[in-house]
Design brief:
The chain is built from 13 helices and nine strands. It is an alpha/beta fold. It has two domains: 162 residues, Rossmann fold (3-Layer(aba) Sandwich); 121 residues, N-(1-d-carboxylethyl)-l-norvaline Dehydrogenase, domain 2. Strands 1, 2, 3, 4, 5, 6, 7, 8 and 9 form a nine-stranded mixed sheet that branches. Helix 1 links the parallel strand 1 and strand 2. Helix 8 packs across helix 10. The protein binds NADPH dihydro-nicotinamide-adenine-dinucleotide phosphate and ligand LL5AMS7Z. The site of the ligand O=CC(=O)O has 6 residues, from loops. The site of NADPH dihydro-nicotinamide-adenine-dinucleotide phosphate has 27 residues, from helix 1 and helix 4.
Length: 294
């Protein structure tokens, strides 16, 4: 099957590679075109623009940074809209808000194409291992057609109904994740400041009711102040911002998420946006010691 892939960042590169390895004929595009080279060497074709990719592909998948990127790849010169038409599908797997997704849906369907939003839960390693959780919504026919690709990319896919539900579900999930990361950071800092072993604290967490893969994976690296980017902090802050906007719309009070968002914003302002989102720990450490990092 011919599949297009737009956006070869941390996630997109791993996902496009899995499709290629599984026998899909993949045409790739990335804003920084040089990043296509590695996949081209492994057998992918390259399109010079998103439109060129869509013209060659029955289905085109996008995995882009944020709403600005998702909109620009569709609407700008050389964008998806120039070539999308009846018989073609566009699947946006980026994490964006429902409004962004609805705008893209309207434009694609006005041209006769089919649209599916399909953000994913799971980070760099699940993307590499084809173990993502796919939160799809939109055109059911396109969802059914995309199942062979989703089976390569993920361990489970959900069809959540109309466009917007996938985006919103992803934001709710990541809002919880961002708050939990802040709680873990505070716990590590409090344990350390109280003279307790941070590793023993993690071991105890891991045996109890609040054990989870994220604490287990990120905790030991956080103790070492090591934050190689799997899920960039700037994207987690974007997700908190969009989730808080969803809370505003629905008059849902979310003081915990709002505080977490402030910590991620502070981390961004200190230049930590390209590190892993666990780098928010640096902020908690600073706050915890009255200005002096411990
Ligand atoms: N990393 C993770 O663990 C997860 C990420 N996500 C979500 O997936 C999406 C991608 O994440 P990730 O791969 O980590 O992000 P990266 O920052 O690694 O990659 C972002 C991609 O978006 C492209 N891009 C950025 N701005 C624009 C623009 N204005 N126009 C066109 N392309 C643009 C980048 O191109 P260029 O190379 O030229 O900069 C790059 O291909 C995000 O929405 C993120 O929230 C979801 C689940 C997990
Ligand atoms: O969006 C990030 C993730 O880990 O899921």
């Amino acid at each position: 099957m011919d599949v297009g892939f737009l956006g070869l960042g941390i996630m997109g590169k791993a996902m496009a590679l899995n499709l290629l390895r599984s026998g899909f004929r993949v045409t790739v595009w990335n804003r920084t075109l040089s990043k296509c080279q590695g996949l081209v060497e492994l057998g992918a074709s390259m399109g010079e623009t998103p439109a060129a990719v869509v013209s060659k592909s029955k289905y085109t998948i996008a995995m882009l940074a944020d709403p600005i990127a998702a909109l620009s790849v569709v609407f700008e010169k050389g964008g998806v809209l120039e070539q999308i038409c009846e018989g073609k599908g566009y699947i946006d797997m980026s994490t964006v808000d429902a409004d962004t997704s609805l705008k893209i849906n309207e434009a694609i369907t006005n041209k006769g194409g089919k649209f599916l939003e399909a953000p994913v839960s799971g980070s760099k390693k699940p993307a590499e291992d084809g173990q993502l959780i796919i939160l799809a919504a939109g055109e059911k026919e396109l969802y059914d057609a995309a199942i062979p690709a989703f089976d390569v990319l993920g361990k489970k896919s959900f069809f959540l109904g109309s466009v917007g539900n996938g985006a919103n579900m992803k934001l709710v999930v990541n809002m919880v994740m961002g708050s939990m990361m802040n709680a873990l950071s505070e716990g590590l800092s409090l344990a350390g400041s109280s003279g307790l072993s941070q590793q023993t604290f993690l071991d105890i967490l891991d045996l109890g009711a609040i054990a989870n893969p994220m604490f287990k994976l990120k905790g030991p690296a956080m103790i070492q102040s090591s934050y190689p980017p799997a899920f960039p902090l700037k994207h987690q802050q974007k997700d908190m911002r969009l989730a808080l906007a969803l809370g505003d719309e629905n008059a849902v009070s979310m003081p915990v998420a709002a505080a977490a968002n402030e910590a991620f914003k502070k981390a961004r302002s200190l230049g930590l946006g390209d590190l892993d989102f666990s780098a928010v720990h640096e902020i908690v450490k600073v706050i915890g010691s009255s200005g002096e990092a411990k």
